[in-house]
Design a protein that fits this description.
It is built from 14 helices and 16 strands. It is α/β, with parallel strands linked by helices. The termini are far apart.
Length: 395
């Protein structure tokens, strides 16, 4: 039967290639780090400087975290082989949820296999027909997909435009429940949300606030609690991940008001019908949270220094950078899809691993190379990347 449709799919794939939007997937050998060995599109493997991972604190290839993960596997096994409400939950998951609350200062928490699952399992659980949800236009795909699953009326406001958000809140009128949903840091742009202003509007119009802080947890804030630092008493729902700064392997959570978290335990489909987070990952995540203030806070400071150093170098070379400069996400704005893809390919030849981001990951006409800075990058490595960008710009 598929023969009737094969040509359609072949034509669609060719269209993606012709438009410069084809996404090759590299195959890594060994550990994630600032230097990686990778094979792309069946070519010979190359050892490259890595500037495209969310490995903000450089912990993904850490022996320290690998040891914590192994200890978790030794103590708790490979997994529960079923979902939580059927076979029960492990003490490691309860310990991790308690530590999440302690670290971020929330009332309760629930873990998921990813933050994507945390977001897709949130909105349909707490919102229903007649409610209203207000979503920033640059929110992560997991928020967008989660909102699509719920029956609340959807209002989309322009990125960080508080006048537009207020207009949408007014237009919605009285509702059983109203929820404003935003990324803490917008992942394609490196822009931090205006959370104080959002909270002010939420209080004015009787709405709850939800923040996905996946790219900010462990990265932003004086103590590394993220873009929400100092605002948690005003934010009702926090989602985030252990797949970026706070580890690198995966896993996510939702934290916040106790009543909301308890409803998620009872009704969130991505929690009820998915196995719990692998004990090895859970134990490593617990280790990071327990030791962040003593062992890892200095990595956050190094990350800030590295980000400032690299951005200054790129600006000196005449590149147009996105972002607000506070976050290690450094978008190099090229606008044209083919230009972004071709420049990324040339940088690969120069020994620098970055990715061109094109539609549908970013809007058409807003193509870019998103450079990711890590605390583990040395000045020598950043200088090598700057020289490569300079050479490629001149081609």
């Amino acid at each position: 039967m598929f023969n009737n449709y094969k040509q359609q799919f072949d034509e669609e794939l060719q269209e993606i290639k012709d438009s410069g939007m084809w996404k090759d997937v590299g195959v890594l050998e060994g550990k994630q780090g600032t230097e990686i060995t990778i094979t792309i599109d069946d070519s010979n493997n190359r050892t490259l400087l890595n500037f495209c991972a969310n490995n903000y604190l450089g912990l993904a290839g850490s022996e320290e975290l690998a040891k914590a993960a192994k200890e978790g596997l030794d103590k708790y096994g490979f997994g529960e082989a079923s979902v939580r409400f059927i076979v029960g939950t492990s003490t490691i998951h309860k310990d991790l949820e308690k530590e999440i609350c302690k670290f971020f200062g929330t009332e309760d928490a629930i873990t998921y296999t990813s933050c994507f699952d945390a977001n897709t399992g949130l909105f349909e659980t707490i919102l229903k027909e007649g409610d209203a949800v207000f979503s920033d236009e640059l929110n992560h795909a997991s928020i967008i997909d989660g909102i699509r699953l719920c029956k609340a009326e959807r209002f989309r406001y322009k990125n960080s435009d508080m006048n537009d958000l207020e207009g949408q809140l007014k237009a919605a009128g009285d509702r059983r429940r109203k929820l404003i949903a935003t990324d803490g840091v917008f992942s394609m742009d490196g822009i931090t949300a205006k959370l104080k202003d959002i909270c002010n509007l939420a209080e004015k119009y009787g709405a709850m606030v939800m923040v996905d802080d996946s790219h900010a947890s462990g990265v932003l804030g004086k103590t590394g609690r993220g873009s929400v630092e100092g605002l948690l008493s005003r934010i009702d729902i926090l989602t985030s991940t252990f797949g970026k700064a706070l580890g690198g392997a995966g896993g996510g959570f939702t934290a916040g008001r106790r009543e909301i978290i308890q409803v998620l335990h009872q009704r969130s489909r991505t929690a009820l019908f998915s196995n719990s987070l692998t004990p090895g990952i859970a134990n490593a995540a617990l280790y990071v949270l327990q030791n962040y203030d003593a062992k890892f806070i200095d990595l956050k400071k190094q990350l800030e220094e590295n980000t400032a150093y690299f951005r200054a170098g790129m600006e000196k070379l005449g590149f147009t950078l996105g972002g607000d400069g506070k976050h290690p996400i450094t978008p190099v704005m090229l606008m044209e899809e083919k230009k972004a893809s071709e420049m990324a390919a040339e940088l690969f030849k120069q020994g620098i691993y970055v990715r061109g981001f094109t539609y549908p990951v970013v809007p058409k006409g807003k193509a870019r190379i998103r450079v990711q800075i890590s605390a583990a990058h040395t000045k020598e490595q950043m200088d090598q990347a700057l020289k490569a960008f300079k050479r490629v710009k001149q081609l």
